[in-house]
Design brief:
- By secondary structure, this protein is of the alpha/beta class.
- It has helices at 5-19, 38-51, 61-68, 92-101, 121-130, 142-150, 165-168, 177-186, 201-209, 219-222, 224-235, and strands at 23-27, 55-59, 75-78, 105-109, 134-138, 155-157, 192-194, 214-217.
- Helix 2 crosses helix 3 (61-68) and helix 4 (92-101) runs parallel beside helix 5.
- The longest helix has 15 residues, at 5-19.
- 47% of the residues are buried.
């Protein structure tokens, strides 16, 4: 990507418009699982791309690099590391490392919470932009979404809304459409992404109808252990 500001703006707008109305596949495996290997994740990502995914969301430097080398669609990279406070791309170092591994967009927790390096979410946004990538703000609330856009995030997501107000509203089994609608209404024409508990095509359609710029689905597509357990539980 050129350093020229006009070229940068054009690249950003083209990337964001390419996501609009589409499905982003989250391709991740948990520690200790049999699919947790960069090459396996890259193969899964390519399969999702062939199915029509407009981008791939993935975790960890090795997976980001492997997937970036396998797909042509944008890669949304993040780095999960357990810390008190935030754990999705918690520091500037983590964020820049994701860019260096090949992420076109870096996802980071937008919460107003302590970070191990003492940085703020705005610091992460600046560092990622300086490194030549975009930023997705992973949010749990409308306040997080406000903070994300105010800090300069290029897109925001309802990634972290499950387990908090969403469950209190009795919608733990589906995407947080209430938060999505509130954000889309407050920020019309801005990229608000639906992520979290999108388990069926109907969920994805409902999210788009509620105002989502794009929809992320992960477990229902790329996590066979969970999918199998759903069938087993139904039979039980």
């Amino acid at each position: 990507m050129s350093n020229d500001s006009n070229d940068t703006s054009t690249w950003r707008n083209t990337l964001l418009q390419g996501l609009r109305g589409g499905l982003i596949a989250s391709v991740q495996a948990y520690v200790g699982e049999p699919l947790r290997h960069p090459e396996t994740m890259a193969q899964m990502a390519r399969a999702c791309e062939l199915g029509g995914a407009v981008a791939i969301r993935c975790q960890g430097l090795a997976d980001i690099a492997a997937i970036k080398g396998r797909v042509a669609v944008p890669v949304i990279g993040l780095w999960k590391e357990e810390h008190d406070g935030v754990y999705i791309t918690p520091t500037v170092r983590h964020a820049v490392a994701c860019v260096n591994a090949g992420a076109d967009i870096v996802a980071a927790d937008a919460a107003d919470a302590p970070r191990p390096d003492g940085s703020s979410f705005a610091d992460i946004v600046k560092a990622v932009h300086d490194a030549g990538a975009l930023v997705m703000a992973d949010c749990a609330s409308l306040e997080d979404i406000d903070r994300g856009f105010e800090a300069g995030a290029d897109l925001v997501s309802t990634t972290l809304s499950h387990g908090t107000a969403a469950i209190d509203c009795g919608i733990a089994d589906g995407p947080d459409l209430g938060l999505l609608q509130a954000a889309a209404s407050k920020y019309p024409g801005r990229p608000v992404i639906c992520e979290g508990r999108v388990h069926t095509p109907a969920d994805a359609r409902a999210a788009l109808d509620a105002g989502a710029w794009a929809v992320v689905a992960g477990t229902a597509i790329t996590h066979p252990t969970s999918i199998t357990s759903w069938f087993v539980d139904a039979l039980a």
